[in-house]
Amino acid sequence: MTPAPPVSAGGHDGGAADGRRTIAVVPHTHWDREWYDPFQTYRLKLVRLVDDLLDLMESDSSYGHFLLDGQLAVIDDYLEIRPEHEDRLRALAASGRLTVGPWYILMDEFLVSGETIVRNLQKGIVRGSAFGGVMEVGYLPDMFGHVAQMPQILAQAGLAHAVVWRGVPSAVDRTAFVWTAPDGSSVRAEYLVAGYGNGAALPEDAKQLVRRLGSLQDEFTSFLRPGEPMLVMNGSDHLRPQPWLGRVVADANSLQDDFDLAITSLSAYLASTSSDGLTEWRGELRSGARSNVLMGVASNRVDVKQAAARAERSLELLAEPLSALFLPADRWPAPFLDLAWTLVIRNSAHDSVCACSADDVVDAVLHRYAEARQLGEGLTEQALAAVGRSMAEAGPVAVNPSAHRRGGLVDVIVPAVGDAGPDVQVLSERAGMPGTITLDGETVRNMLGLLQGSRIDDQSYVTDVSLAEGETGLDVTLVIGPEPRDGVPVEEVKRELFTLLTAQPDTEVRLIIDQPPVRRLLARQEPVPGFGWSRFTAAALTHPVRAGGDPSTGLTLSNGLLTVELDPATGTFALDGVPGYGRLVDDGDHGDTYNYSPPSHDSVIDAPTSVVLVAGDQGPVRANADIVSTYVWPEYVDGTTHARTGAREVVVTTTLEVRADEPTVRVRTRFTNPSRDHRLRVHLPLPTPAVTSRAECAFTVVERGLVAEGRDQEFGLPTFPSRRFVSAGGLTVVHEGLLEYELVDIAPGGDGSGAAASTLALTLLRATGMLSRLGMTLRPLPAGPMDALDGPQMLGPVDVSYALCASGADPYALAADVLVPLAVSGSFGGGHRPAQGAELTVEGAQVSSVRRVAGALEVRVFNPTDADTTVRLPGRSGWLVDLRGRPVTAFEGDFTLRSQGIATARLDT
Ligand SMILES: [Zn+2]
């Protein structure tokens, strides 16, 4: 409620005038909405907690403040059960005693998209306005590390303060630092050295309380300057308020002269602090120097990570831009999108998407992601159908959901007229079915009774139907085409026909079927403008792909841009002559959902017992082939011997696909996981040795070295998360939900230079059986309850995909090609839309979001380069707005965006 001061405000040492140290006691609870218990179980406790809290705060003015964990979801969860208490909550919030928000939920920052982080903050701020506004502090108490751009995100929402715990590096040696984003935006970050529970469960006795404060002060003495206030966070995971707090604080103040205790709010405490003389830290916070970062959450439950990536993609990269651009403004599907985003935002909670949770919780998370994706995909289909309906001419139309002008592979159904030509691949062909069949009424009734709507099968739809009464019977004419068409009166005609047949059961019915011959093609579509459309036109192939070789000696897929050679001896493949791609390395994992941990007696399986190559499509548009490898993996890690034990056979099928005119090989690996307690990684050789990796992260690409900072309690394992791509040593890997990578095979450079990695290991699966565990090799103490779980073992089908490119192509463009390809819609023509065009042009930056806000188009862009850029929106004008939608500057046609900046442009209508 209290606006935070600007970061530069200084000069106030925050200490009490008489030399006593000010102790800022901030009562709170940390409310993991779901974790080792499911949501509803925790909510039963939440409702009791908030019931008691309201009674306590209303009856005891000495219990001055309470921080409801910085997330509005907690309020909504409560009000769903106790709607009658909304006024009580509002009154306490309005008086400044109860602080809410700014987040909707305390999300993980690395496992969700930048848009999910922004939408979460925006949803929190909007919801918080019903309670007099949110806490103006970027409260990030428990997230497993922090993304580099967080200071910029907070600054663009008007927040000058962050509060963090995990991930802070050893270079920070005070209880605060200046945290700077790659674009130079800064916030003052309060560092909770001992976590958000350093003052949890304070004693009821004042003398004991003073002793506790003394030992707290001793513990952090090196972090505190003389006279600086000490922040005491009075709460922890699911802890209830301590009703005696007001009394014991007053008693402690009258008892001694060392400390001056005050129950206060986080905002008020931060307003008393200064940024003078603080260390600056630039970029992400992923250090385990003083607290666990739990880096293994990026690779547990790969199904959850895939579901998250697909749901986010379906909303932010498909449903939103296509609905915003191709539907009239008044058909913007706001309620559906709000619902889908609420599901995605709820799932972004750190214990939810991180899947360090009970199996019931993970089931719920997967269900929410599935619903969000179903909404995203359904809305995408509706927008594409609208493009089809609006085309002037009939035939397939390709739609480009991304900002880049590009061609790409399309799968279309076209009339089978003449020769298909050299530049396409015919997948199937169906002869025409003209003709008239004369049937009795009963048979026609049965046949048409089976027809539900206009769909006959996936490639056949009734596109027109009519009924005529002739002198000698009834004529039913069915026109059948490859695409569904709106408004075909199938049901009406059926009803009319059945009525006539009921009246005259012996009438003869002539079924006249008009189905032209069609063929299904793969082709490379000519370039389509960014955010535009183009009638299907097969491009002449510059680099057609060809499959060659023999399955017994080796298969080759090549298009002149890259060559992939499959090796039947090893089950791996060579990329442009570099061998060894796709080597599957399976080792033991006696860790838990939070951390990988090798068993003390590990065994590593990295070679198959047999390999079979299977040829597939031969080109010229698409060529593919399978590597079918059989492995014998140990069955589990024995808890007594700490060794991998038993043997299970597994068949792993890896499909490699190369397309015409693309420098990329797409890889899909499928198997049924038979083993427990193991980690499966694919090893990808780097064309040149690398000392750093560059991985996509929210609104930027972060560069990381070969090591990570850790400590005895958590080894600094240099496995890192990437959002959709990671590049190293000339190789770019694009993936969907395979978030964890590590640079391995580290050796000194041949020329005597420092150590460099020659391989990127991408985690495909990490299977463990414990939520948390004691005595692990890389993290000896538990990070949560030591509950045995089935789900994280991931027994059953695993289906993972990634793509490789060694040509140095722009990774954002690669990610769009692989994950958001051209879409196709059918059209019957008769609309207004010409053969080609674009609804929006955005050049000079990466586009994160295109949607409608209050009817207007809103475009969010970011500049991941090291130089300023000009963002061009030809023909458009409007306002740059901050993340609260407040206007910042007007623009016309273009604007400058600083290096690593994020900008949101609201376009004039
Ligand atoms: Zn938590």
| Largest sheet, spatial ordering of strands | 27-28-31-32-41-38-37-34-35
Radius of gyration: 31 Å
What is the rounded distance between the termini? 34 Å
Structural class: alpha+beta
How many helices does DSSP assign?
A: 15
The overall pLDDT, averaged over residues, is 94
- Beta-strand portion reads 25-35%
Number of strands: 48
Helix content: 10-25%
Taken from the alpha-carbon principal axes, the silhouette is globular
Bound molecules: zinc ion
List low-pLDDT spans.
Answer: 1-15
Tell me the major beta sheet.
9 strands, antiparallel
Question: Which structural traits does this protein have?
Answer:
single chain; 909 residues; alpha+beta; nine-stranded antiparallel sheet; five-stranded mixed sheet; 15 helices; 48 strands; globular; binds zinc ion
Concise description?
With 909 residues, this protein is an alpha+beta fold.
What is the secondary structure topology, with strand pairs?
Blueprint: E1 21-27, H1 39-59, E2 66-67, H2 73-81, H3 86-94, E3 98-99, H4 114-128, E4 138-140, H5 150-156, E5 161-164, E6 176-180, E7 186-191, H6 206-219, E8 230-234, H7 245-255, E9 259-263, H8 266-271, E10 280-282, H9 302-326, H10 334-347, H11 350-353, H12 359-390, E11 397-399, E12 406-415, E13 424-430, E14 435-440, H13 441-450, E15 455-457, E16 460-470, E17 473-481, H14 490-503, E18 508-514, E19 518-528, E20 532-535, E21 546-550, E22 554-558, E23 563-566, E24 573-575, E25 578-581, E26 583-588, E27 610-618, E28 622-633, E29 636-637, E30 644-645, E31 648-659, E32 664-673, E33 678-690, E34 693-697, E35 700-704, E36 720-721, E37 725-728, E38 731-735, E39 740-748, E40 755-767, E41 796-805, H15 811-819, E42 823-825, E43 836-838, E44 846-853, E45 856-862, E46 869-881, E47 887-897, E48 902-907
Helix pairs in contact: 1-2, 4-10, 6-7, 9-10, 9-12, 10-12, 13-14
This protein binds zinc ion (ZN).
